[in-house]
Amino acid sequence: MRDDGAGLKRDRILAKGKERGLAVRDDMTDAEVWALIWEPGFSTADQVSDVSGRGVGMDVVRKNIASLGGAVELDSAEGYGTRVAVRLPLTLAIMDGMSIGVGAETYILPLGSVIESFQVDSRTIQTIGSTGRVVRVRDEYMPVVALEDVFGVRIGVARQAPKSW
Q1: How would you label 8-26 residue by residue, b for 16+ Cβ within 10 Å and e otherwise?
Q2: Closest Cα to residue 83, out of 91, 74, 92?
Q3: Residue 62 CB coordination number (10 Å)
Q4: What 3-state class would DSSP assign to 36?
Q5: Helix, strand, coil tally for the chain in percent (to 5)
Q6: d(CA 110, CA 88)
Q7: Using CA atoms, how far apart are residues 134 and 157, in angstroms rounded to an integer?
Q8: Would the pLDDT of 56 be above 70?
């Protein structure tokens, strides 16, 4: 991600750091100065608004990215722009799932949410009252949920094989 081309203002960050009592020196490297924005409560905004100047944010962003096993890097040159690189582990993009077909739609249910799966024969579904449906599993009755109703999908539409992802 890049900014509008203005870049971070080194002098302004140093001044705010001194104002907040942080260990700041004029001979700090650019990387050390940019690291100040990750300090809790750090802000260069002159006025508080709905989106800036409240002194919360970047430290929380960095902490949350780190909690996912990732890292964030910041590089800037005043007058040229700022580059923020967020690196997340590939394992966050890979998740085991079970493919479920409903009408023409295909959904992926995370396997971590599946306790058990079983095939239901329409002859084993029983009606309770006027609208309730249940199926007996090991001497216990489980509710039957019509996924076409939950997802608002028309049944009877031919389902295509899912594309590989």
Answers
A1: bebeebbebbeeeeeebee
A2: 74
A3: 19
A4: helix
A5: 25, 25, 50
A6: 20
A7: 25
A8: no
Residue 134: the pLDDT is: 93
Q: How many CB atoms lie within 10 A of CB 97?
A: 15
Burial class (CB in 10 A: 0-12, 13-18, 19+), 130: exposed
The tokens for 82 are: 């700022």
Digit-coded pLDDT (tens) for 5-30: 788 888 999 998 998 889 899 899 99
Distance CA 40, CA 55 (A): 7
Tokens of 104: 């023409």
135-160 pLDDT tens trace: 998 999 999 988 888 888 888 755 55
Cα–Cα nearest to 134, from 119, 147, 145: 145
Q: Which of 90, 86, 57, 58 is nearest to 72 (CA)?
A: 86
